[in-house]
Amino acid sequence: MTQATSALPRVLIVGLGLIGASFAKALRLSRSAQVFGMDAQPGVAERALELGIIDARVDSIETVPEFDVLLLAVPVLAMGSVLRSLQPYLRADTVISDVGSVKGRVVDAAREVFGDDLPAGFVPGHPIAGAERSGVDAAKADLFDRHLLILTPLPSSDPAAVALLTRLWQAVGAEVVSMSVARHDEVLAATSHLPHLLAFSLVDTLARESDNREIFRYAAGGFRDFTRIAASDPTMWHDVFLANRDATLGVLRRFQSDLENLAGAIERGEGKTLLDVFGRAKSARDYFTQILQSRQRHSDDTRRNLIVAPAPAGLQGTLAVPGDRSISHRAVILAALAEGDSHIRGFGENDDNRTTLEALRKLGVVIDEADDGEIRVQGRGLTGLQAPDSPLYLGQSATSMRLLAGVLSAQPFASELIGDASLNQRPMARLQVPLAELGAHLELTASGTAPILIQPGQQWQPLDYDLPMASAQVKSAILLAALCAGVPVRLTEPAPSRDHTERLLAELGCRLESRGNALVFAPASQLPPLNLDVPGDFSLAAVHLAAATLVPGSDLTLTSVGVNPSRLGFLDILKDMGGSVVMSNIRDQGGEPVADLRVRCAPLKGGSYGTHLSGRTIDEFPLLFVLAALADGESCFAGLGELRFKESDRLTRMLEGLRLLGADIEVTDEDVRVRGRVGQPLDGGIVDCAGDPRVALAFMVAAQVTRRPVIIRNAGRVLGAYPGFSAAVGQLGYAVTLED
Ligand code: S3P
Known about the structure:
Layout: H1 3-6, E1 10-14, H2 18-30, E2 34-38, H3 44-50, E3 56-57, E4 69-72, H4 79-86, E5 95-98, H5 103-114, E6 125-127, E7 148-151, H6 159-171, E8 175-178, H7 181-209, H8 215-218, H9 221-227, H10 234-243, H11 245-268, H12 271-302, E9 306-309, E10 316-320, H13 325-337, E11 341-345, H14 351-362, E12 366-369, E13 375-378, E14 392-393, H15 398-408, E15 415-418, H16 429-438, E16 441-443, E17 452-455, E18 463-466, H17 472-485, E19 489-492, H18 500-507, E20 511-515, E21 518-522, E22 531-533, H19 538-550, E23 555-562, H20 569-576, E24 580-589, E25 592-600, E26 608-609, H21 614-617, H22 621-629, E27 634-637, H23 650-660, E28 664-667, E29 672-675, E30 685-688, H24 693-702, E31 710-713, H25 718-721, H26 725-732, E32 735-738
Helix pairs in contact: 4-5, 7-11, 13-14, 13-15, 13-18, 14-15, 15-17, 16-17, 19-24, 22-23, 22-24
The structure holds shikimate-3-phosphate (S3P).
Residues 326, 399, 471-473, 476, 497-498, 618-619, 642 line the site of shikimate-3-phosphate.
């Protein structure tokens, strides 16, 4: 066995029907595990081996201790007996999961077998995917591609087991989300089980009523669309309804009563009731269509690869980077809360900023966008937003979610915030705790993540809060909630984080004071309109500062870049390492310092950088790891735990990618150590940024000075994160192509 394969987890799939066999096939193709299969029906595992779906067949249950992961792909009602037969052979660290569509019943079955002491490796799961065909021969390697996989971790579940299952499902292309068992069963009862019941029932009613099924000859699109799922497997669905009795009955009873109302309205000729119901339904369905399209677009974009060849010559020229993302979020939110019309120029036209802007529109804010890039926002006052008619979908943008959660937690209506798979994994309890202390009501999933449900009925009180982590998003959410609620707050942070919210609030007349290491905020009772030129985004400028530092012969000037000291950790470290950056033409723009930055290639040496810098440097660490890999000597960066909770786990992504390119890098829980290889270029190769644009940009910088080209997989979101990316890199002399 080679070094590489011996480290791969050994996964045994029990049950090689369509779902089990498709998972096996996709997992084997992904080369992320050794895949074994077992099936109670004679000949099935043999057939799977013949088809190349599994690496080996398992005939005896006694070999179960040899496997790291057991995936039970058997019917829900058979789960108890399968678990009972496996029980004597489980190791303490065996990871056990399943694919059943009802989770409460699976957990009950496990309790009957193990008692209340459930194994730490037990993490139920459910892929939201299927096909009309069944059996091992119908296995499809792309069955889970871009489909959701719901994990329902229990209080007893080991986070390492959750992480391993997440990796395996991601390897077969699934978007992994997590929720509680009860929520899963309710959600599935409403979105899957009830529609199947209705489809079966309608087809049955019509088929029994019509002579010789004549009626089907005339049934066109509507009937076909509505009843497609009535062709699903009756035995499996009979299992589902028996297993998910309570949740399906709950939603069925509600539906029956609504249907009765509609029947009554038709009987009485009440057109208004019909219009109300159909209008609400249409708007909900339009919203659903929009989410589906936006998911599709994002995942299509994400999957594109960036091919980067070493820079053919020095990077040269003058460039204005797009408007700052953090300031743009805050500017448009504060403009929406102001009285009167605000004008914002240089708004960051990136995906995340657009997400905030569209969410504000759904909250009733009128926003006009002029051709010259100026946006005009008609403010609605601090508590004048309108209740949205559906949940607000915020894509990948944590800043949109956290800042809007702050604002919405102080509005007089309920709202719900949801994100894509990556955002729905990110920690939100850090937000819920201080906002609850202030008097707001936020509900999260059992794992402390979105969807966030915000309820009105707040009882405000002044807040004195020590933030446990340096987070500008959490700090800003608290300030925005306090602003809308009119309550004073006092905050401390373990290390400084970006202070754009504070600066804009001060510009708009709020009182903010620093007392010792605390920030004391006294909100104004209303905000005047804002008139702002957004500074250039320092984080995007940093990409070019890093690349030009490495590429011999480079000489670049970046104009009108925001140089707020709370963002400049990267610049301080780069200069300390020997970088050559000159700042000129420093001026004030709406309370923010702005300057031109000239950067030239320079030799770098390693250094040691402590926790106090982490908040000011946060998004630029991936770039610094690249620079450190090419510097003279060793570099250490401490206190980087927060990097694990970004659009991806950036410590892991950078470790894996940079090692692949030949860098000498080590990562512990919170710290990174890099031994530079000055004078020796990195290798080329294929790295994966897992859809995280900042990681992609850091690899793009590394690829400027590699021996061979670098392919960055899943890098398409760079386009949405950096408007005008292709033109900018072309203009400065990078050799970058984005694959279709
Ligand atoms: C941001 C704050 C930082 C940063 C993010 C933008 C902001 O996140 O990483 O890209 O605009 O407030 P945290 O507050 O979670 O550290």
